[in-house]
Automatic annotation (TrEMBL):
This is Sugar ABC transporter ATP-binding protein. The keyword Zinc does not apply. It comes from Ramlibacter aurantiacus. It comes from the Bacteria. Pfam families: ABC_tran. Residues 4-244, 252-486 form the ABC transporter domain. Keywords: ATP-binding, Cell membrane, Membrane, Nucleotide-binding, Repeat, Sugar transport, Translocase, Transport. The keyword Nucleotide-binding applies. GO terms for molecular function: ATP binding; ATP hydrolysis activity. InterPro entries: AAA+_ATPase, ABC_carbohydrate_import_ATPase, ABC_transporter-like_ATP-bd, ABC_transporter-like_CS, P-loop_NTPase. Gene3D superfamilies: P-loop containing nucleotide triphosphate hydrolases.
Length: 487
């Protein structure tokens, strides 16, 4: 039976103690949830476990044997597989080729160079897919798969290599309910096949539904070991943050009617139009591939997003007071640049002279935003690459709060954000609208979408497929109906 033990692991980056004397264990047939605030050390820990980082002190043991990994390839060879958030799937190759990448079966015919044995490859891929209960065709090009399906391909690839420990890093961050359920089914099957699973998530309700045990990290230390369910959300949050949050997860917006402000954006789509007024948060719902991402990019003036953009170019959109927080944070951040420079980057054009004269004020504004959004560590000159994923996401949001904006386009704005910081971001979005700003918000987190939005437009393949306006039926049941009937 597989047993992975982490004994007294420490790791620092410069002045940051990312892990301090961390000990935990997980056995085959168990799902261990690993939770903690943004910057708590979760990614650092799994990077050590999978051979990406080397620890300063401490040891990892697999079945009692010390494991000294020098690369992810060595981790894989030992049966430890990480499914990261940025999936590595080759779009031009088929599902089967991706699953067997690096281990493709070959056929030898005398006098000719060995070639790929396509029949064997398909059969092998099919068998792995069957083991995890996934009905994907082995010949489908990976480029045609949804994010959720690509994730399953990466998991299938791991299993093809006989994974003993599978580490899933926030796997449900951009999945909708049915895809989450499919993923959970796969994880449960793996558990039944004696794989040890480490599961990282900020969606605390998932911990309850899936995990057998739970470890909570705070500031690089283990602050709670919970050995059996239930894992009440209040207790998890208290362990994560060290304080009691009044009502974690709730967002304080009471809408009831469309704000009376002047229309600021008119969005024409196939199937209809919708408006976003001053003071309004216009929600967009849709399953993956709904076209919401492209719509927000189009409203931001991106030339490759299809359809006419109201501003012609990104530069013009920014000058007109529009800001976009894209779903992939890497698209809006320059990783090698500091937190401060990323925050002011979008405004350099308009404010170059003022900025040169008011360096001190900019520093103050950046410090205020870092405090407001709890960006950790509070080091404005640290390169963004050195921040945890959730803290990078906060920077992607902060850059549109430093100067006056008229319109914020938000695509999954709280992706990867912990529950306490999520409430801070919600407060900012609400305050922005209350001051007369217009927000177009796309989110696969339905409670978030419902709590913040005044109206919700449901998209399907770029078409307007449904609409919810304030009234008695504005709620989760109706939204699910609209989403699922438009699927
Ligand atoms: N390459 C790096 N260089 C410098 N500091 C780093 C580096 N990677 C992580 N850190 C720091 O280590 C600490 C732990 O970060 P880590 O990414 O492990 O957190 P996390 O729990 O995964 O957070 P999140 O939920 O936001 O993904 C943070 O303070 C972070 O800024």
């Amino acid at each position: 039976m597989t047993e992975l033990e982490v004994c007294g692991l420490s790791k620092h980056f410069g002045a940051t103690q990312a892990l301090a004397d961390v000990s935990l264990s997980v056995r085959g047939g168990q799902v261990l949830a690993l939770i903690g605030e943004n910057g708590a050390g979760k990614s650092t820990l799994i990077k050590v476990l999978s051979g990406i980082h080397r620890p300063d002190r401490g040891e990892v043991r697999l079945n009692g044997q010390p494991l000294r990994l020098h690369s992810p390839a060595e981790g894989m060879a030992a049966g430890i597989v990480l499914v990261p958030q940025d999936l590595h799937v080759v779009p031009g190759l088929s599902v089967a080729e991706n699953i067997l990448l690096g281990h493709l079966p070959t056929r030898r015919v005398a006098g000719v160079l060995p070639s790929i044995d396509r029949k064997a490859m398909r059969a092998m891929a099919q068998s792995v897919l069957q083991d995890i209960g996934v009905a994907l065709h082995p010949d489908t090009p990976a480029g045609e798969l949804s994010f959720a399906e690509r994730q399953l391909v990466v998991i299938a690839r791991a299993l093809g290599r006989e994974a003993r420990v599978l580490i899933l890093d926030e796997p449900t961050a951009s999945l909708e309910r049915r895809e989450v359920e499919r993923l959970f089914d796969v994880v449960r099957r793996l558990r039944a096949q004696s794989v040890a699973v480490i599961y990282i998530s900020h969606r605390l309700e998932e911990v309850e539904g899936l995990a057998d045990r739970c470890v909570v990290l705070r500031d690089g230390r283990v602050v709670a070991h919970m050995e059996a369910p239930p894992f009440p959300i209040g207790q998890l949050v208290e362990a994560m943050t060290g304080r009691v949050l009044a009502d974690p997860g709730a967002s304080p917006r009471e809408s009831g009617q469309i704000p009376a402000g002047a229309p600021r954006l008119r969005v024409a789509l196939e199937g209809g139009t919708f408006e976003c007024r001053s003071g309004e948060i216009a929600g967009i719902g849709g399953l993956l591939g709904s076209g919401a991402k492209a719509l927000l990019r189009r409203l931001f003036g991106a030339s490759d997003a299809g359809g006419a953009s109201p501003h012609g170019s990104i530069r013009h959109a920014i000058a007109a007071g529009v800001g976009l927080v894209p779903g992939e944070r890497a698209h809006s951040l320059v990783m090698s640049m500091s937190v401060r420079d990323n925050i002011v980057l979008a405004h350099l054009d308009a404010y170059a002279h003022a900025f040169a004269r008011h360096e001190g004020r900019i520093d103050e504004a950046v410090a205020r935003l870092m405090e407001l959004l709890d960006i950790r560590p509070r080091s404005p000159h640290l390169p963004v690459a050195h921040l945890s994923g959730g803290n990078q996401q906060k920077v992607a949001f902060a850059k549109w709060l430093v100067a006056r904006r008229e319109v914020l386009l938000l695509d999954e704005p709280t992706n990867g954000i912990d529950i306490a910081a999520k409430a801070l971001i919600h407060e900012r979005i609400i305050a922005f609208a209350a001051e007369g700003g217009s927000v177009v918000l796309s989110s696969s987190d339905l409670p978030e979408l419902l709590a913040l939005s005044d109206t919700i437009s449901v998209l399907r393949q770029g078409r307007l497929a449904g609409r919810m306006e304030p009234g008695a039926s504005f709620g989760e049941a109706r939204l699910r109906d609209l989403l699922e009937s438009s699927a």
